[in-house]
Amino acid sequence: MSDAAPPHADTTAEPLASLVPLLTPWLPRQRWFAGKGRPITGLSPVAVTELLPDGSLLHLLLRVRQDGAQPGDCYQLLLGAQDSPPARLGPALIGRPATGPLRGRAIHDALADPRLATLLLERLRLPGRLGPLRFSREDRSEIPAGLAPRPLGAEQSNSSVVYGDAFILKLYRRIAPGINPDLELPRALARTGCLRVPPPAAWFEAELPEEPKELATLGVLQPYLRGSADGWQLALGALAVAADFAACARALGQATAEVHRALATALPTTVMGPAQLRRLAAAMSQRLDATADAVPELRPYRSALCAAYDELTLPGPGRSAWRAQRIHGDLHLGQALRTPADGRWSLIDFEGEPARPLAERRQPQPVARDIAGMLRSFDYAAAVGRAEGSGWARRSREAFCEGYARVHTDPREDPRLLRAHETDKAVYEVLYEARNRPDWLPVPMSAVRRLAARADGARRPRGAATAP
User: Fold this and answer.
1) I need a labelling partner for 33 at 20 to 30 A (CA). Which of 21, 187, 268, 416 fits?
2) How far apart are CA 186 and CA 136, in angstroms?
3) Is 41 among the domain residues?
4) How far apart are the first and last CA of the chain?
């Protein structure tokens, strides 16, 4: 590091040693922990930083090894330490160490403590460095002091805190070297003047000892769109009263196209040549094979679905040049917010699919991947709203594409590219539902049957009568 760490920044293993017996059973119970189902075989510190000199607020970057695998995933933890915590922190309690400098103190998730969450906001208001941590702020951003924190209950791959209904802090849990797209892309969009994505106001990063040349993004503070509702809530609300969603879907398609055009302006794009298309098709085929091996219900459809991927590599008359650019990467109705005052759509959460490597998420990709994700989301909403046969999803899908075509190239003009990405997304959903929500498996399987029939021109998949 270029300068010495402050005296209260401790990057040794000493504070962690007494926490290992507490964190080993606690980590797998967290929604954001990616290694569920595999035993933890070791914990080692990447960096341990005291954000307060009395040790009552610890920032940990922790390497978690499982099944003897090396080097293991790196996770970010913010831990509070108190002698007598208030009863309201009970659900956030991790335990009391029996030894070491934290012996006997109550250790808890610091985001649940308003005092400690407020101190984190203060750090973000004041750019600077604390040991391996780097705090940055946009020059023109105004972040008032004393905003009351409110943790959001929906834990996913990250944790979020709303401050005074003015800002939202997203704290990433699984950490990798390099800038997170959720910081990189909104900053790039802000430079273009695009108003469809809330611009970052402040963020913090870490200089990892293992990767000294690359800062890892730890958290981003953005404006909070107060009173907004996400597209999933709005779609289910419309379905509940048998209302059409086409107008909303059309406006959402236009917003998505505006973001794609701005990203293509702000960041490099590329034309996908034959070699790139072959790699894309091969990667999709590999995911299909792996999923079919894991989910027997998919096996009868394997050859028909694979045909959709093979079409990407075949020359065809009139095919437009397929371009790749930076995209959202995990677009669905839950990633779009609509403000009630003006009915305006905004896109959020540009992190991409957290399970994929960071380097892969930062690669240029066809916009068809985002579009396919949204089209699949309409199908999911119709299934949850018990409207699968009503034509609601079809009308919403068509309206979304119509809105998109007002600003960008009509995605329906590239049916092979869109079909391949929608097939790839449905295969991903099959694996996810089989592992996590088996009762939901019929939803992506319905899309699999439709896509397979379209791919080979038949009502049923090839070999369906004899396949295992």
Assistant:
1) 187
2) 15
3) yes
4) 58
51 close to 75: Cβ distance less than 8 angstroms: no
- Residues of the chain below pLDDT 70: 1-14, 68-69, 154-155, 316-320, 455-468
Alpha-carbon distances of 352 from 69, 88, 386, rounded to whole Å: 25, 34, 29
pTM: 0.89
Q: Both 186 and 266 in a single domain?
A: no
Distance CA 190, CA 368 (A): 23
Amino acid in position 196: R
Closest CA to 205 of 187, 180, 169, 174: 180
Q: What is the pLDDT of residues 202-218, one digit of tens each?
A: 999 999 887 777 899 99
Residues 154 and 268 in one domain: no
| Residues 215 and 234 both lie in one domain | no
Same domain, 247 and 308: yes
Region of 427 on the Ramachandran plot (φ > 0 left; ψ -120 to 50 alpha; else beta): alpha
Identify the domain boundary among 223, 247, 265. 223
The residue with tokens 């020059």 is: 139
By CB atoms closer than 10 A (0-12, 13-18, 19+), residue 103 is exposed
Residue 218 lies in a domain: yes
Residue 120: how many other CB atoms lie within 10 Å: 24
Domain with residue 256: its CATH number is: 3.90.1200.10
Q: Is the bond into 71 cis (omega within 30 degrees of 0)?
A: yes
